[in-house]
Design brief:
The complex is a heterodimer of chains A (550) and B (167). Chain A is α+β, with helices and mostly antiparallel strands and 550 residues long. In chain A, 36% of the residues lie in helices and 17% in strands. Chain B has a single domain, classed as Alpha-Beta Barrel (TIM Barrel). Helix content of chain B is 22%, strand content 19%. In chain B, helix 3 links the parallel strand 6 and strand 7 (106-111). The chains are: A alpha+beta (550), B alpha/beta (167). The complex binds protoporphyrin IX containing FE and iron/sulfur cluster (SF4).
Chain lengths: 550, 167
């Protein structure tokens, strides 16, 4: 993982001091509410329904155990003892006091953490695949490139007041996309060209929210060293020409659509031609330097499927289920990727207590070289677990509530904070997640259903990614009452798609039954190999509509 | 007459007046003393103002440096207006004026210029600022120098940190 040097440390220390001064001036009335707003947002501080809310950055989802322990301490000392993992691989606190935020930032800085640009109209935290560098099907480790983008985008002087927020995601596997790159403002896919050279395919103008869109490719191949100059060109075109007259039309997707992807690409190319050879162009030395922070851990040479694992799976059906669902194959023989699910029924998806954060830190130290990754599905990954330790790990995590063997199933729900926390909500979302989890409490049935993404947002801002859920649920307000609109067929994977609305919305208590009916149609109509999405794509929305509204 | 912040301190003897574009059908009224003209007006009347050291131009946030015909370096002063401090276009305009159009004279930020934006403005090539009147000008120096280093290349530091980092 990246480790700060003197430069990084000093810049971050100065940032904390700057925000302390800004907070003092705001509290003293020298900065108006409106003037303080972008400053606090760019330091992670929102003001929400019940209290301020603070979003802490987890660059490309990587956390060390010392950082987890510090987060635990912060939630205990400054908050109510729990935190929330978000759908952009960050961490949120729900109840910090505004005047404490500079102190929280100082405590974070001590462990090389911050809340930089986690909010506001600026370049946000860059996200990537939580299985980076441990999966076998990967072109190259994307994390050094994410770190390069992180440094370039941190306090970028030209792009701190963009028309709207700006999110970048990177993927480096040609068979999967766990970073949802096609629904980001910029999606970067690492590729090789015909000559075997490394580079990037660049998507621009995807996004969810009010006008969901799958981003078009605006450059098929960008050479490796040109990453930052090209990003600078895209951002400059957006900063200059993105709409500023209407907040709801200010995202880059609207600009790309208005100019057409080809027209936009042309404008970017013209801008880039001026700056492609500027000093911002990456150097081989810099890429190599950053790569030295992402070396392989000290793997032992081990065999796959050790006898301890095989016999434990034979003995315990529950363990075997968990291995099938929550454990993924690793590029290194004898190791596995373990996902700790934060989706126990009755607990808001992604919520963890201070104690659980410390438990995760201990697990990381004991089983996975002291590091974890946060996923955009609001789970936590131990990326390097020895297969002969899986059984022991499983026995340890079950009582901690991290062992729910439902990864990627219908109850591994992505869910925004919704009406319980969020001032913008039309409806609550957490109770819907819980009701659906209660309805589908039979694990064998869930396994039979296979992979289904169910995503819930409390309003059209789409923090819960409902548009790209195979089943999406959106909270809507109907004459002051909370209703839920259902969409089908969304995907955030390589075959990214925006879901189609099923029909009129439902009352809260109807939702578990509605989901059951949708699932029934799938079960009746599927062929042997089909996932929910496959069946939906083959038979279309009508059979689902007929059943649900019958 | 507003105070102007420059590298060498605060100046209270600045005489430049910002002139708005004349409304349709009226002719341009020049003030006494040096005048900053809208870039659109200057574009149309360049010959008339050639060689005068009391005429500068100002860009609004939607004006484009690319539209300027002629040599910017004959201008003693260019101002860029921030109609609202959240309108970030002025940062790109400044960088383009400096880095693409080679402007080396005084570049001034005017309009909704607040303390916490000064550092970014400096990085993008501004070297003079008219702070909004209700802000404490004595805090400007601290804000202009709030960071001692930065990751990116910009106008003030031409190389990104990665080309300057010594291991
Ligand atoms: C509780 C306070 C929150 C507020 C006020 C809030 C507000 C918003 C708003 C206004 C948008 C739409 C922006 C746009 O379309 O331009 C948005 C998008 C988004 N939010 Fe939140 N949010 C909150 C919490 C969260 C949380 C907890 C998560 C993660 C679980 C999250 C994840 C996202 C994501 C991923 C998007 C992106 C959608 C896109 O790509 O357009 N937000 N949020
Ligand atoms: S989707 Fe809406 S309700 Fe949910 S967190 Fe985002 S803004 Fe709030």
């Amino acid at each position: 993982m990246y480790v700060y040097d003197e430069y990084d440390r000093q810049i971050l220390t100065e940032r904390v001091a700057q925000f302390r001064s800004q907070t003092d001036r705001a509290l003293a009335g020298e900065l108006s509410e409106e003037e303080f707003l972008p400053l606090r947002l760019q330091n992670g501080l929102y003001v929400q329904r019940l209290a301020p809310m603070m979003r802490i950055a987890v660059p490309y989802g990587m956390l060390r155990s010392v950082q987890l322990r510090r987060l635990a301490r912060i939630t205990r000392d400054y908050d109510k003892g729990y935190a929330h993992f978000t759908t952009r691989q960050n961490v949120q606190l729900n109840w910090p006091a505004i005047e404490d935020v500079p102190d929280i930032l100082a405590e974070l800085a001590e462990v090389e953490m911050h809340a930089n640009q986690t909010s506001g109209n600026c370049i946000r935290n860059t996200t990537t695949d939580q299985f980076a560098a441990v999966q076998s099907n990967e072109l190259i480790d994307p994390r050094p490139y994410c770190e390069l983008i992180r440094q370039w985008s941190t306090y970028h002087p030209e792009f701190a007041f963009l028309p709207r927020k700006f999110k970048v995601a990177v993927n480096a596997s040609d068979s999967t996309d766990r970073a949802a790159i096609q629904v980001h403002d910029i999606g970067i896919e690492m590729v090789r060209n015909d000559a075997g050279e490394l580079g990037y395919r660049v998507y621009v103008g995807g996004g969810l929210g009010r006008t969901p869109m799958v981003g078009p490719v605006i450059r098929e191949f960008l050479p490796e060293l040109d990453l930052l100059t090209y990003l600078e060109a895209v951002l400059r075109v957006y900063n200059r020409y993105g709409r500023r007259d209407n907040k709801f039309k200010a995202r880059i997707k609207i600009l790309v659509k208005a100019m057409t992807p080809a027209g936009f690409a042309e404008k970017v190319e013209a801008e880039w031609a001026h700056i492609k050879d500027s000093p911002t162009r990456l150097t081989r030395e810099e890429i190599d330097r950053v790569k030295t922070f992402f070396t392989e851990p000290d793997y032992q040479s081990l065999e796959n499927e050790p006898s301890a694992l095989v016999s434990a799976r034979g003995e315990s059906k529950a363990f075997d289920n968990w291995v099938k669902r929550n454990v993924d194959s690793h590029k290194q023989p004898g190791y596995s990727i373990v996902t700790l699910t934060l989706k126990k029924t009755g607990v808001p998806p992604g919520d963890v207590s201070d104690k659980q954060l410390e438990q995760i830190a201990d697990l990381a130290d004991q089983y996975s070289f002291g590091e974890v990754r946060v996923t955009h599905q609001q789970n936590v990954v131990l990326a390097d677990v020895r297969q002969d330790q899986l059984f022991e790990l499983w026995k340890t995590i079950v009582p901690m509530d991290f062992g729910t063997a439902n990864l990627n199933t219908l109850t591994d729900i992505i869910c925004c904070p919704g009406g319980d926390y969020c001032a913008l909500a039309n409806a609550k979302s957490i109770p819907i997640a819980e009701a659906i989890q209660r309805e589908f409490d039979d694990l064998d049935y869930l396994y039979d259903l296979g992979d289904i993404d169910l995503n819930i947002s409390g309003c059209m801002n789409a923090c819960g990614h409902h548009h790209v859920g195979n089943i999406g649920v959106l909270g809507v307000d109907k004459k002051g009452e909370e209703f839920y609109q259902v969409s089908l067929g969304g995907s955030s994977q390589r075959d990214a798609a925006i879901g189609k609305i099923l029909g009129p919305s439902f009352a809260r208590e109807e939702m578990p039954r509605v989901v059951s009916k949708i699932v029934d149609v799938y079960v009746e109509r599927r062929t042997e190999e089909e996932t929910f999405l496959d069946t939906y794509r083959r038979i279309g929305i009508d059979p689902f509509k007929e059943r649900v509204y019958a | 007459m507003p105070d102007v912040i420059r590298k060498d301190g605060i100046h209270n003897d600045d005489l430049w007046t910002l002139v708005s574009a004349p409304v349709e059908g009226e002719s341009l009224q020049l003030p006494d003393g040096p005048a900053l003209l809208p870039v659109t007006v200057w574009n149309e009347n360049q010959d008339a103002f050639a060689g005068r050291n009391d005429i500068g131009v100002w860009f609004d946030s939607h004006d484009e440096p690319e539209t300027v015909a002629g040599d910017l370096n004959q201008l003693p002063l260019i101002a860029v207006n921030f109609p609202k401090f959240t309108d970030g276009r002025g940062y790109s305009i400044a960088r383009l004026l400096r880095e693409r159009h080679g402007y080396t004279g005084e570049l001034r930020a005017v309009g909704d210029v607040l303390l916490d934006q000064l550092f970014y403005m400096k990085r993008c090539g501004f070297d003079s600022y008219v702070l909004r009147a209700d802000k404490d000008i004595n805090k400007a120096d601290g804000c202009l120098n709030v960071f001692s280093n930065a990751y990116q290349a910009a106008v003030d530091v031409k190389e990104p940190l990665f080309r300057r980092r010594t291991a």
